[in-house]
Design goal:
With 616 residues, the protein is α/β, with parallel strands linked by helices. Strand 21 and strand 22 form a beta hairpin. It binds adenosine-5'-triphosphate. Adenosine-5'-triphosphate binds next to strand 16, strand 18 and strand 20. Adenosine-5'-triphosphate (ATP) binds next to strand 16, strand 18 and strand 20. GO terms for molecular function: ATP binding; protein kinase activity. It is found in: Membrane. InterPro entries: At_inactive_RLKs (IPR050994), Leu-rich_rpt (IPR001611), LRR_N_plant-typ (IPR013210), Prot_kinase_dom (IPR000719), Protein_kinase_ATP_BS (IPR017441).
């Protein structure tokens, strides 16, 4: 019962310690203790990641915690073998023990826990072989055994019908990769002496496991071979990249010339849809060709149905009318990416102007409604919004023309190119981006209680040359049909939003909270590690903050900067407030922008920036 659950937890604490403030064990019921969750008055979840537990897990503890479904003791300093009474936790689904100093063989009793879905024993000192007993765990979706001392062959009969993620890299394994595991990428197996797909084929004796078991010399040789292969593949990859780049350049310039010389480039009439995404109009082709294909189709259609005026770009503002449809059609274009609402292109006009053109798909509303809504979008004017310059509407083609943002999106900046030579985003830039984005959204919300963005995420925060944030894609959620229900928005979407077109300002605030968490943790809301534990970014952060282990959540790049942790914690708190489960608990964007302004002001003041002396 709950009483024995409680005493087990207390016994665990006295056996392996942990940060002393960690559980407020004064409460009678353990269900409110940090890291503990109950259902039906029994402990079902125990999550104690990274809290400096150390020593050996004693037996006599888990025998009582029979309702446990999730046990996470990852990233601690636990030693020795796993206690055998863990076998009593027959309801266990998720077992995370990675990042400890556990040793001995992987115990057989684990294979009696048949409900296990996620098992992570990586980065410990487990030794011995991989047992074919793993086959009993038919529900496993993830199995991580990397960075241990496991030896011998992987049993050829291993087969997990539901396995999605698997890793045994950096062990002392040898022999062939079992057939049923060959579909996993090479990274899952690296740092062993394995052969067969995805590696080279096995030579005769490599299939003899007994010989390989003690074959240390062979291991070293293979290590060298693997290094060789790795270096070789990197070089080959670079070579291919260079060739591709050269080819791409040639291709783009060729298209350039073709379209410039023949502005009325003939487009085969059989392709009235001019679908860039599926046809041969691929990356590097001109947006003109793609759009023109659609428009020649249109032209005909409209000649039948009338409406000559429709073939015009409609501009917003007065000074903006610096190019026309012809110019746009002649521009060379490159695909920037495919989004929920269509494909975005960078188009370089003849006179050097660069614009971003978005071809909308799945526009199901009427022309009148479209024009009305897009006019409202075009009327938005704020320094933290990407301005909509013009649009084009015909039956088959809907184009939006925006200013091109040279530095790309925040998403690319945070998660792209993590390699050397990349300038890390410091706190000042990140908090300035947070503030800029907040002001942009605040402006949108100030246009009326029903005005919301509907699709806030890091790929929609674009940056100017000087890293000023501009919010893009506003208002589009109301233009498209239900078929473009964005899957990858999932990580940002507020829990109460079921129809992506029916969004609210409070839902925007939730998405913005997730965006702040992304800025602070450096983790994309769709991060694999998070998915592995089946939580979303807000819940992951909340669980760690609750456990008073806050600095574990921050992006390592940010921790390098001293003196700003206080502000980081304040922004984290704001992010958690924004991502509150219940819409009413979330602050307004007005309040959000104000709080970011304040915390930025205090950090600038603390760092004695003379520019801000007047604020004191
Ligand atoms: N005005 C712009 N300037 C520079 N790059 C842009 C511009 N608009 C879009 N992009 C880039 O093009 C890519 C595709 O953008 P798009 O808005 O079509 O899709 P998305 O933001 O990934 O998803 P969604 O359609 O759901 O917003 C983005 O990653 C973004 O970096």
């Amino acid at each position: 019962d709950l009483g024995s659950d409680r005493s087990s937890l207390l016994a665990l604490r006295s056996a392996v310690g942990g940060r002393t403030l960690f559980w407020n064990a004064t409460e009678l019921s353990p269900c409110g203790w940090a890291g503990v969750k109950c259902e039906d008055n029994r402990v079902t979840m125990l999550r104690l990641p990274g809290v400096a537990l150390s020593g050996q897990l004693p037996s006599g503890i888990f025998g009582n915690l029979t309702r446990l479904r999730t046990l996470s003791l990852r990233v601690n300093a636990l030693t020795g073998q796993l206690p055998s009474d863990l076998a009593s936790c027959v309801n266990l689904r998720n077992l995370y023990l990675q990042g400890n100093l556990l040793s001995g063989e992987i115990p057989d009793f684990l294979f009696t826990l048949r409900d296990l879905v996620r098992l992570n024993l990586a980065s410990n000192n487990f030794s011995g072989g991989i047992s074919s007993g793993f086959n009993n765990l038919t529900r496993l979706r993830t199995l991580f055994l990397e960075n241990n001392q496991l030896t011998g062959p992987i049993p050829p009969e291993l087969d997990f019908p539901k396995l999605e993620q698997f890793n045994v890299s950096n062990n002392l394994l040898s022999g062939p990769v079992p057939e049923k595991l060959q579909s996993f990428q090479v990274d899952s197996f690296l740092g062993n002496s394995l052969c067969g797909r995805p590696f080279e084929t096995c030579s005769g004796n490599a299939t003899l496991p007994s010989e390989n078991n003690k074959n240390n010399g062979g291991k070293k040789l293979s290590g060298g071979a693997i290094a060789g292969i790795a270096i070789g593949s990197v070089l080959a990859f670079l070579l291919i990249l260079v060739i591709l780049l050269v080819l791409c350049r040639k291709k783009t310039s060729a298209v350039d010339i073709a379209t410039v010389k023949h502005p009325d480039v003939e487009i085969p009439g059989e392709k009235p849809e001019g679908d860039v995404e599926n046809g041969e109009y691929g990356n590097g082709y001109s947006v003109a060709a793609a759009a023109a294909a659609a428009m020649t189709g249109n032209g005909r259609a409209e000649a039948n149905g009338g409406g000559v005026g429709a073939k015009k770009l409609v501009f917003f503002g007065n000074a903006a009318r610096v190019f026309d449809l012809e110019d746009l059609l002649r521009a060379s274009a490159e695909v920037l990416g495919k989004g929920t609402f269509g494909t975005a292109y960078k188009a370089v006009l003849e006179m050097g102007t660069v614009v971003a053109v978005k071809r909308l798909k799945d526009v199901t509303i009427s022309e009148r409604e479209f024009r009305e809504k897009i006019e409202a979008v075009g009327a938005m004017d704020h320094e933290n919004l990407v301005p909509l310059r013009a649009y084009y509407y015909s039956r088959d083609e809907k184009l939006l023309v925006h200013d091109y943002m040279t530095m790309g999106s925040l998403s690319a900046l945070l998660h792209g190119n993590k390699g050397a030579g990349r300038t890390p985003l410091n706190w000042d830039i990140r908090s300035a981006i947070a503030l800029g984005a907040a002001r942009g959204i605040k402006y949108l919300h100030s246009q009326g209680p029903s005005v919301s963005h509907g699709n806030i995420k890091s790929s929609n925060i674009l940056l100017t040359n000087s890293y000023d944030a501009r919010v893009s894609d506003f208002g589009l959620a109301h233009l498209v049909g239900p078929s473009s229900t964005p899957n990858r928005v999932a990580g940002y979407r507020a829990p109460e939003v079921t129809d992506p077109r029916k969004v609210s300002q409070k839902a925007d605030v939730y998405s913005f909270g997730v965006l702040l968490l992304e800025l602070l943790t450096g983790k994309a809301p769709t991060h694999a590690l998070l998915n592995e534990e089946g939580v979303d970014l807000p819940r992951w952060v909340q669980s760690i903050v609750r456990e008073e282990w806050t600095s574990e959540v921050f992006d390592l790049e940010l921790l390098r900067y001293q003196n700003v942790e206080e502000e980081m914690v304040q922004l984290l708190q704001l992010a958690v407030d924004c991502a509150a489960q219940y819409p009413d608990k979330r602050p307004s964007m007005y309040e959000v922008a104000k709080r970011i302004e304040e915390l930025r002001r205090s950090s600038l003041r603390d760092n004695h920036n003379p520019e801000f002396d007047h604020i004191k």
